[in-house]
Write a structure and sequence with these properties.
The protein has one domain (22-121). It contains 1 helix and 9 strands. The chain has one helix spanning 2-14, and strands at 28-30, 33-39, 44-48, 52-57, 60-72, 81-93, 96-105, 110-113, 115-121. Strands 2-3-5-6-7-9 form a 6-stranded antiparallel beta barrel.
């Protein structure tokens, strides 16, 4: 009996929509790539979309991503281009995106908030 219940629970968790034919998919989640250029007024950031969670409704979507980034900023004695890892909110319509990445600079012990625009790659 316990094996039957375990088997039923396994199939229910794998595909819960098949048990309820009336439900329609309203929101979906997926992994996508994107390229974005952002600024904080002093630095220029080239963001490449990393892993994240994306919620889609029709042609609009919102996602929270980790963003591998190259920071362009003249800051002696550091190099002109430095790598960073940021996180941020991205809002998109079709292939166009607007984002607000946030970065932590350990050298200055401060947070940087930037804003930018970009394009979604893939479908």
């Amino acid at each position: 009996m316990s094996r039957i219940l375990l088997l039923f629970a396994f199939f229910f968790l794998m595909n819960p929509c098949s048990l309820f034919a009336q439900n329609k998919e309203v929101v979906s989640a997926s992994i996508t790539g994107s390229v974005m250029v952002s600024t904080d007024g002093e630095s220029l950031f080239y963001n490449m979309g990393g892993p994240g969670i994306k919620f889609t409704k029709d042609q609009f979507y919102i996602s929270v991503n980790m963003l591998p980034t190259l920071r362009y900023f003249k800051d002696e004695p550091r190099p002109f281009v430095t790598p960073l890892l940021g996180t941020g909110l991205i809002i998109g319509y079709k292939r166009f995106i607007i984002g607000m990445p946030v970065y932590y600079l350990a050298a200055k012990a401060s947070w940087i908030i930037s804003g930018g625009i970009g394009i979604k790659l893939g479908k």
